[in-house]
Design a protein that fits this description.
9 strands; 2 helices; 7-stranded antiparallel sheet; mainly beta
Length: 182
């Protein structure tokens, strides 16, 4: 990238302001492969993890009625998108079964005898580490009260002529998450 010479008639460089004041100090982009996920409850699944997301967050507005148009203020309920992870299914289905059993333990699957009292063992904390291009820690996203909501199917297909690894994905619900930048 060529630099632009913006010296004045005297040859002096102007003070850094305006256009120059708004330049970022780090111009590197965030790499899509720079992450590591840790969920202690499902270690085999996180080992084979291929993709994750940092969930979006939104708030609703509080409306103040007036004679004319309502005035909107921030301060409503916080809503999160799902936290989703996809992973390669290992040959003995061990990682897929980890999530399957976790979901089963959280629900009444067959009858009311399956009802499990709600306790802390049904949820887990999780940490998503965001890494730089040199694998240095950039940020840590900590999830509290995490549990799986859905687990995708595994699709077998004789017609698939290219032998690729089978993938599955899991959507998690959670109570909250915090982003801590290093």
């Amino acid at each position: 990238m060529a630099e632009i010479n913006v010296s004045d008639a005297s040859g002096k460089q102007p003070r850094k302001g305006g256009f120059y004041a708004n330049q970022p100090s780090n111009k590197n982009f965030l790499e899509p492969t720079g992450f590591k996920l840790e969920i202690p409850k499902i270690p085999n699944t996180t080992f084979f993890c291929q993709s994750v997301n940092i969930p979006g967050i939104a708030i609703s507005e509080v409306e103040q009625q007036t004679v004319f148009n309502p005035i909107l203020y921030p301060g409503g309920k916080v809503e999160h998108e799902n936290f989703t992870a996809s992973f390669i299914v290992n040959e003995n289905l061990e990682n897929w079964l980890e999530v399957y059993k976790w979901i089963r333990s959280c629900s009444t699957y067959k009858n009311y005898d399956d009802v499990v009292p709600v306790d802390k063992s049904l949820v887990s904390d999780a940490v998503l580490f965001i890494l730089s291009s040199k694998n240095n820690l950039i940020a840590k996203v900590s999830f509290q009260g995490l549990f799986p909501k859905s687990l995708s199917s595994i699709d077998f297909d004789y017609g698939d002529t290219e032998l690729e690894a089978l993938n599955a994905s899991v959507d998690f619900a959670f109570t909250s998450f915090e982003v801590e930048v290093s």
